Amino acid sequence: MRDNQRQRVYDAEYLVRDTLASLAKADVPTFDFYGSSLLVPLERKFGDLESIQRYIDAVLGLNWVKDMWPERTVLPVRVRRRAGRRFAHYEPLTRTLAIPDRTNSSGWALREIVILHELSHHLANHGEAHGPAFASTFLHMVREVMGPEVGLLLTDSYAQHGVRFGSLASV
Known about the structure:
Blueprint (H helix, E strand, L loop, with lengths): L5 H20 L4 E4 L2 E4 L9 H12 L2 H6 L1 H4 L4 E4 L7 E3 L4 E4 L12 H13 L7 H15 L1 H14 L10
Parallel strand pairs: 3-5
Antiparallel strand pairs: 1-2, 4-5
Helix pairs in contact: 1-7, 5-6, 6-7
């Protein structure tokens, strides 16, 4: 199946990632959003793959996540070191997140938004890899786990980059 909006989803995520990285360096992580000042929660960073595994297990164990995706949360998701350093990816057949770690990269993937992106592939589990169902799932996970302010940044970035998404009920 063709992945028609893959680059748009990545571009939208990169904009949010860059914004979060800039805010992490600020004394007070506030962001001017169309004239309103948002206090943005700091993004979680991970030191190793084991801490990512604990995070994934905790997210999949949240009651609201289990309620929304009961058939997906009963399936364990594993994390492994990815040999390449440029990309992280999800392997659906083995339900594995392949993440470049500090041994083969700068550790760029050891951050919450990247992990939620890959975990959203597991939860969406149908349709186009970066299509509307995935984009909606990723947005919902970011909003609920990272906070509504980060969700607002991603929603705006989706709009700027032309990412198609809908409500979770409609996809």
